[in-house]
Amino acid sequence: MRNIDRIYIDGAFVTPHGNRCLDLFNPATEAKIGTVRLGDAEDLRIAVAAAKRAFPAMARTSKAERIAMLHRLRDAVKAGSADLVAAMTEEYGAPAYFIAFSVQNTASVFEVMAASVESYAFERTAGSSAVTMLPLGVVGAITPWNSNFGFIATKLAHAIGSGSTIVIKPAEQSAIQTQVLLECLHEAGLPRGVLNVVNGTGPEVGAALTAHPDVALITFTGSTPAARIIQRSALDTMKRLVLELGGKSPTIVLDDADLDAAVPVALMSGFANSGQACVAGSRILVPRSREAEITARLKLEAERLRVGAPADPEVRIGPLANAAHWERVQSYIRLGQEEGATLLTGGEGRPQGLDKGWFAKPTIFTDVTNTMRIAREEIFGPVLSVIAYDDEDDAVAIANDSDFGLQAYVLSSDEDRAIRVARHLVAGRVVINGAPHDPHAPFGGFRRSGLGREIGAYGLDAFLEPRAILKPAR
Ligand code: ADP
Fold first, then answer.
1. Which of 196, 226, 303, 377 is the most buried (most CB within 10 A)?
2. Could you give the angle at the alpha carbon of 171 between the alpha carbons of 273 and 190, nearest 5°?
3. What percent of the chain has pLDDT over 70?
4. Which ligand 1 atom sits closest to the C-alpha of 146?
5. Which of 133, 135, 202, 193 is nearest to 166 (CA)?
6. Closest ligand 1 atom, CA of 145?
7. CATH architecture assignment, domain 2-245+448-469
8. Does the predicted model carry a pTM greater than 0.70?
9. CATH architecture of 250-439
């Protein structure tokens, strides 16, 4: 049992003013594993005040000082990797391969930002004017539970890289992971007040952050409905916004695809992070001419994927994060059947042999049309829809016919052809033939997938604003 009863303000772990407690669970066993004492709006105000005090000195730091801080953060995460893996395993329960990637990626986020700061032009000229890219002030970050370490690290890295200070409101159900990560980050010895973290609920601490007049920018990762509330709240004080939201990403299997390579990639893009990924390729678009062959292969290979707890290294799909989310995913599996789609594999209930834990059956629907709700709404679980297309133009039209535009995948035996198709897609990232994660590529989406981009110079641009100094002609 871990009882998380501290928040992080002004360089120290402190007891929050808020005193409401929330239980924490292991999603693979449903066992209660701890509690978190939640902060409240008063704690948030104290955190913002600390960040505000720290801002002037942080804004004046040189490139070299920011890079040194980022390197120390990277090293601190690397040094704490084993503890991070243990916390994520217990509190999130994802497959071991995914946890290993997440922890390594958390360190890499700081490394990549350090390189981005190195090459970023903070001082520029425009005409005869001198332009300086300046940090905005205190940044407020709100993060979700599906990749707690990575999102906290990304938002902190952008704050440091831009010379801002930050107050983070993480997902309250990930409090053990947040605490272990903070214990690592504390070792990096950032100046007091640069990093502040307040556990609490969205409607209380999150809302206080988005409304706070001393917060200049909100960087949010989460659902589109929460983003709408945040956007409205940010309006009064004209806050800048970076929003990384949902997706309903298409995976286009072109008619020349080699199924030995394409089917496993399509499945793992869809079932990534047990389907709890904004980038999940949850619509698989297949050529009608090969539909029967591809769906047969999808069924065969999906049924081979092992579902279970992270202790088994062969597991590819873990539990859903909590009971309410499990119920929500089940309701979509029911909805797909009501809408007239055909269950190719999976369905309602738990997989055989898993009586405890919030495990859902990896589910694939065929005979899906792009107008069905299961093809339009983000399910955030291991539920995929197969949609048939007539030709390449039709595939592109279906792929782009979505409220979202976060990510897309193209699979073909001909890479140039896949890239040609990619150029027609409305998506923040298009992944060709299962290309590995590129930590330098901009991340974010079109349409209701968000606003702005994270990572590299694109991410820094969103955290900075130009000041031009105009001089009289000599
Ligand atoms: P999820 O279903 O992944 O939890 P949410 O978008 O609801 O997605 O949550 C993502 C983050 O946003 C969490 O930290 C949550 O507490 C926070 N959040 C939820 N509602 C609000 C709100 N009204 N204002 C600010 N933050 C919120």
1. 196
2. 105
3. 100
4. 3
5. 193
6. 3
7. 3-Layer(aba) Sandwich (3.40)
8. yes
9. 3-Layer(aba) Sandwich (3.40)
